[in-house]
Amino acid sequence: MRWRRQQASQRYSQKMRGQRRFEGLSDLHLHSLRSDGTEPPAGVVQAAYQHGVRTMALTDHDTTTGWAEAAEATGSLGMTLLPGMELSAAQGWRSVHVLAYLFDPDHAELRGEMDRIREDRIGRAARIVGNIGRDHDITWDDVLAHTDPGATVGRPHIADALVSRGLAHDRSAAFDGILHPRAGYYEPHYAPSVQRAVSLLVAAGGVPIIAHPSPSGRDRMMSIAMMEELIELGLAGFEVDHRENTEAGKVVLRRMAAAHDLIMTGSSDYHGLGKPNQPAENTTTDVMVQRIIERGTGTAPVFA
Ligand code: AMP
Ligand code: FE
Ligand code: FE
Ligand code: ZN
Questions:
Q1: Where are the beta strands (DSSP E) in 31-137?
Q2: Neighbouring residues of the ion ligand 2, judged by CB less than 5 Å
Q3: What is the distance in A from the centroid of ligand 3 to the CA of 303?
Q4: Pocket residue to mutate for ligand 1, from 155, 178, 190, 219, most atoms within 8 A of Cβ
Q5: How far is the CA of 155 from the centre of ligand 1 (A)?
Q6: Ligand 2 center to residue 294 CA distance, Å?
Q7: If you average pLDDT over residues 299-303, what whole number do you get?
Q8: How far is CA 181 from the centre of its chain?
Q9: Ligand 1 touching residue 186 (CB < 6 A)
Q10: pLDDT (tens digit per residue) in 226-241
């Protein structure tokens, strides 16, 4: 009995020793120009650092190509990097974004989905530009001029082309105008079901967390039943503190997280100059960062 207790307490102190004290703020949702941010990964790291962030995740849409550059930058600044991604998924007509941390970027089936989404996003963007081109002076070359080679293409790149053509004042105006689905030019892109997205991320050792789960409007919160189905499949938590979540939605999310012992994060969704969101405008607690690190098995966090 005594031996057992001793062992248990030894294990406990080992765990405590392994536990890191995090200095500074944690922001686990930022984009670079490997998708629709406006800065290279090292620039995003620099911006986060300047806002007091010391633990961050680079979460470009459907790609991991920014990880190496981000890791080099966080290392040189004494920061911690959680390799991450924001995977596009769908629930019926609703577009759902799944943040994922510490998954194996070489998991074959997950890679297959990422490649398929990215490929289809190109044709879809070209279709949207074709639709807009019926009424306005814009070409696919305009979009390419605003897209980093190899980047995950999205409407933000089309927005930049519209701005340069004088058809919108900035990205936000483009989204409220020509790029809004009700403007009539919108086209959807391929995305796996949210159930498949969560299952694949779990299979790849990752920690899946629903991004901005309760926005207002078209993509508003999924049903409770659907979220419970996702929790059964291994969903780890919700990004509760995000500027696009409604206050009423946050109340529901916090209640669900407490009932199912889920992880709750807060983050900026920084896109460089592409959105008003600033690094660390919402942050994640050290306890929640630690829980993500303990749960992720597909790739290691990068400590300085
Ligand atoms: P897409 O996935 O191609 O349909 O484009 C959606 C992306 O555009 C999201 O990832 C958002 O980050 C970005 N986005 C949405 N609204 C805005 C906005 N008002 N200004 C800038 N970027 C936006
Ligand atoms: Fe984005
Ligand atoms: Fe998103
Ligand atoms: Zn995002």
A1: 53-58, 80-91, 94-101
A2: 36
A3: 26
A4: 155
A5: 6
A6: 27
A7: 98
A8: 22
A9: no
A10: 999 999 999 999 999 9
Assess whether the C-beta atom of 274 lies below 6 angstroms from ligand 1: yes
Q: Indicate the DSSP class of residue 216.
A: S
> What is the percent of the chain where pLDDT is above 90?
91
DSSP tag of 222 = P
Q: Please give the pLDDT value at position 218.
A: 82
Task: Specify the pLDDT at position 198.
Answer: 99
Instruction: Provide the residues around ligand 4 (an ion) whose CB is within 5 A.
Output: 86, 269
Q: Please report the DSSP string for 242-280 in residue order.
A: -TTS-HHHHHHHHHHHHHHT-EEEE---B-GGGSS--TT
What is the number of residues in the chain? Answer: 304
Relative to beta strand 263-266, strand 237-241 is: parallel
Q: Which residues contact 237 (CB under 8 A, 6 or more apart)?
A: 207, 209, 210, 257, 262, 263, 264, 265, 288
- Three-point CA angle 109, 303, 238, nearest 5°: 55
Q: Is 37 in the pocket of ligand 1 (CB under 6 A)?
A: no
Whose tokens are 């289809």? That residue is: 120
User: Quick one: pLDDT band at residue 119, thresholds 50, 70, 90?
Assistant: very high
**Residue holding tokens 């306890």?**
287
Nearest-atom number in ligand 1 for the CA of 31 is 12
Q: How many CB atoms lie within 10 A of CB 178?
A: 23
Residue whose CA is at the smallest distance from ligand 1 atom 15: 175
235 Cα distance to chain centroid: 14
From CA 67, how far away is CA 91, in angstroms rounded? Answer: 28
Sign of the Cα torsion 91, 94, 95, 97 reads: negative
For residue 31, which of 157, 205, 201 has the smallest C-alpha distance? 157
Q: Is the CB of 155 inside a 6 Å radius of any atom of ligand 1?
A: yes
